[in-house]
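Good morning N.,

You mentioned wanting to compare the apo and holo forms, so I went ahead and generated the holo version with coenzyme A. This is what I fed in:
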Amino acid sequence: MFRFEVESKNDWWEVEALYDLCFAPGRTALSSYRLREDVAPVADLSIVARDDLGIVAGAIRYWPVSIGGDVALLLGPVAVHPTHQGEGLGGALIHDSMERAARLGWHRVMLVGDEPYYRRFGFQRLSGVVMPPPTNPDRVLGHGVSDGVWEGVAGDVTRFQQG
Ligand SMILES: CC(C)(COP(=O)(O)OP(=O)(O)OC[C@H]1O[C@@H](n2cnc3c(N)ncnc32)[C@H](O)[C@@H]1OP(=O)(O)O)[C@@H](O)C(=O)NCCC(=O)NCCS
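and this is what came out, ligand included:
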């Protein structure tokens, strides 16, 4: 009942409108947005879900980030239109995009979010990985494609620099 497509250039403002609707005003003031400035989202992982009428029902984007000398994906923003929340769409977008990410060779995914929601996807609190302030460290979560990929990864999360 939902069609998943890789986000195209023409989808950008529709997705932005969904994010404006779903997040508190001033969302772009959040520190995670500083990590996205002048960095392109990972194209193949930005997914838009449309309903039967072609209306955007949910969307997810990812950005690359640097953590010391290591690289990870920053998941988000992810949002589902209020009329479709609780139908499993958010979970499906996260599962689908994380599977794509693993196939594309991304081993580490991190995000800033509610642990009670994200633990069902295998996210756990990351200790030693520091988001720009002000970020509650309890909301800094990570997922690894296999055990140990976060071992030794620590330091400030900064804008992605091609290594
Ligand atoms: C968070 C969000 C993407 C989830 O999408 P969704 O399609 O509603 O989620 P799903 O249907 O896959 O899952 C629903 C379940 O998640 C739970 N859930 C949703 N948000 C939660 C939260 N913040 N904390 C804990 N549980 C949460 C629901 O209670 C429900 O639980 P259940 O399965 O036990 O009934 C969506 O609610 C949303 O867009 N919220 C506003 C924007 C936002 O907060 N984005 C995430 C930024 S961290």
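Residues 65 and 71 are 6 Å apart (CA to CA).

Happy to go through it together on a call whenever suits you.

Best,
F.
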